[in-house]
Design brief:
This protein is mainly α and about 325 residues long. It contains 15 helices and no strands. Helix 6 packs across helix 9.
């Protein structure tokens, strides 16, 4: 019937749905196609980042103690923040956070830059050296922390045994239990574990600098130091800025290594804000005060990023 109607030139009642590729082709030509493509990413960001962040901010203005259900979850305004100003542990943790992040990032930056400059040379065995340099980055924080805790053990640690045999120490030292050495020992361990992050980014940036720039500078009589200062550093400015910001954010927000090595001790000498917030939430079960600590950390990191980018005169 349909074939006869078609041959006779009559309209048919049979309709075919457009094929999927045809439908997608029509939509892709629409000027709003880009918005359809970013919808999954926006939903993912909302569920994973925006909603938990907003919920944490709201939590900082409410009472939330799992050990005191009789207090309820009423709105308490700025009381959590007022308590923070009179909390001596908060100020110690804030000071330690500044020392921890500054010293660790500076040491990782120097080691990472040196490693990147070394790997950027076309010398025999560089591939093997590259694998060895990147090995610490492959280890999870839990594994790296436990390895170093064993090596620094005052009785059984291999490092203490080496220092005693070399005459640097008369007996094994409790590096992570001494208030004078605990934080700086943790900084060295963190630098060992985190410097490959800088090495990878800096090596990629060095590979992207055209060799012709260095040849032209050499023709003009520039030495190695002048080429490094006027060619290498300016070309890596954006990468350096991004790497430092990402690493500072990672260090301030990640207390795993300190939790494993010292637990914030001895006597809060290695207590940082992220670790204090974690212990407040999951040891004291005071999620309201922990939320306030997290909001303060968020504000501090935002202020640091803005001031740092302005200092480097980066606007894009």
């Amino acid at each position: 019937m349909t074939d006869n109607a078609t041959r006779a030139g009559l309209p048919t009642t049979r309709r075919f749905l457009p094929r999927p590729e045809t439908w997608l082709g029509h939509i892709s030509e629409h000027r709003h196609w880009a918005y359809f493509l970013i919808v999954p990413s926006i939903l993912f960001i909302f569920v994973i980042i925006l909603y938990p962040t907003a919920n944490g901010i709201v939590l900082s203005f409410r009472e939330m103690r799992l050990t005191r259900p009789d207090l309820g979850t009423d709105f308490v305004g700025l009381r959590q923040y007022a308590d923070m100003l009179s909390d001596p542990v908060f100020w110690v943790a804030l000071y330690n956070t500044v020392k921890w992040a500054t010293a660790a990032v500076l040491l990782e930056f120097i080691l990472g830059f040196a490693a990147a400059l070394t790997l950027n040379r076309d010398l025999p065995g560089m591939k093997v050296i590259a694998v060895l340099i990147l090995l610490p980055w492959f280890l999870p924080n839990v594994v790296a922390g436990n390895i170093w805790a064993l090596m620094l053990d005052p009785r059984l640690g291999v490092l203490n045994d080496i220092f005693v045999r070399l005459g640097f120490l008369s007996e094994g030292m409790a590096w992570l239990a001494d208030p004078d050495t605990a934080l700086w020992t943790a900084v060295v361990i963190e630098a060992w574990h985190g410097y490959p992050f800088f090495a990878l980014l800096f090596l990629a940036a060095l590979k992207g600098i055209p060799k012709d720039h260095y040849k032209a500078a050499a023709v003009d009589g520039a030495g190695a130091i002048q080429s490094f200062w006027h060619i290498t550093l300016p070309a890596m400015k954006m990468v350096i800025a991004a790497a430092v910001i990402l690493r500072v954010i990672g260090l301030v927000n990640s207390p795993e290594l300190l939790l494993i090595l010292t637990g914030g001790g001895p006597g809060n000498t290695t207590q940082v804000l992220s670790l204090y917030a974690f212990q407040t939430a999951y040891l004291r079960f005071d999620f309201g005060y922990a939320g306030a600590l997290s909001v303060v950390m968020f504000i501090i990191l935002m202020a640091f990023c803005i001031l740092y980018l302005r200092f480097l005169r980066i606007r894009d």
